[in-house]
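pasting for the record
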Amino acid sequence: MKAKIIIRLILVAVIACAAYFCYPSVHQFFLKYQHPLDDIYEYDGQEITIRNLFVASSENILYASHLNVSGRRENYLSSASYSTNNTRTINLGDSESISYTDLEYERSYIDSDNYVWTVSGTGRDSELEYYNFIIFKDRSYESLSSFKYYEGMIDGQEYTAYEYSGSEAGTSPDVVKILVPDLNKMENTSVSFNNTPDSTGRVSVTFTGENLHCIAEAFGEGVTSSQGYTQIEYVFDFKSKNLLSVTLSGSQKFEVNDYNQRIQTLSFTVDDISFDACENIEIPKLICENSLINDVFSGDTQIKPSPIFKTEMADNLEQSDIISNIWSDTIYSFPKGICTVSDLSNSLIDNAKELGFDLVMDGYVINDENMGALIKFTISQSEAEIGCIVMPLVVSGDGIINENNLLISAGDTMSVDNKCCIKVYHTVSDSLSSVTCYSFQLESFDFAYSVLKEAKISNLLNDEELSLFAGADSENLRTFASDYKQAEYSSIDKYVIKEGDNQCGYYVIEDEIHPDEYGTIYELPIVSLDTVEKETSKYGNESEVSWQSFDE
């Protein structure tokens, strides 16, 4: 019985094979429902499928100890502005925007616990606008930016880092997920194969679709669309089956008031694949994501320190002058006044010791927008701290500048927030105290505002106290203090606020509901607390932070 069943199965198999190969209609039926990736092509005695091409190249890409890939991303946007009346439509002008980023991908692999890949890029943006007829306006500009992104494992610990210069340019897609597409996600994607090698021995595979799901995840975790790219071409060396290059392209037309068109391309070339043993992996120590600041801290970039001090050591002018001289003598000793931060610190230490002072570079704070940093030098004498120097480093264009520095007495209290706003608190007399704020402003670090607080308005009847507080408003303030009924119980604050290129003064009376009335009567700029806080709040009311040690 079993023998008969086996014989019947063999006969069925033979008949099926004969039908498949002998009858074209049956043969074509099976081919019709076979995925194009698995179609068999023959050339020069070799049989190949598209899937096998990708499998062969993917193994090299995924398991290479060294992988180098170069790339380029381009975006072109054009638009036209029209005016339409009852009879015709007039083209008023055109504009175009072009941006590109040159990319470099590198991967070093030792083992599953030690590997790092990096993507670095340098980008340029330009824009041109022009108008027709009588009015012609050419507005063009270029901006440069660069970035480098690191990801991997070091001694079994996840490692990520990011740095940039210019504008924060972002990163590129996950390069490997483009080089090695997910062939299980080919829905709504057509496939074409140039299976005959060209004169250089190359063949190409092209995927076309609105979403290209096979590479979508390269643009982010959980992403299901290829971000506007609708075609991707892979070029292989037919003999070695190595992947040589990849090119993505896409175009989009849309209309929002004006007619616009966007064309974008992204291309990669596999420059090197090596299986030689990787001995070590170099990773940078990044203090700041902005590479301009990071390069200054690491010593890769020199700076030109400013001799200018904004001193808050008015109580000890002699020491203030000595420290200012130590600073200026140090920076003028360098050729052209240019040095690294480390050289500056070492020279300051030596020059301070010659005059009996001890100086250390003991901390830094980086602006949370990565647009600048502060370095703190502490000065002491006979083991007693006498003050500190704060050196602002400001990102300006494609460089770092230092235009002025702060010299702050140890008798004062200083705070710094995550925007690098510094507030210096100083006691003037038993009833007078002040706070002075310095902050980053439009590629500079400078005075922002000050508040001089008088505990009792009646104290302004004292000539000495009045001279410390009033200045040009002395007589009017004396009259006001004499007339004001709550002078014994209310305080008054004098605000000096930087507004543009000017410094404007205001007075705020404690709990006064109608300050403008007194301002009119006594010809004084008396305003409400809300009025001055609208100006001072933009200079930072953020959380206070600690100075970071350079040894951490």
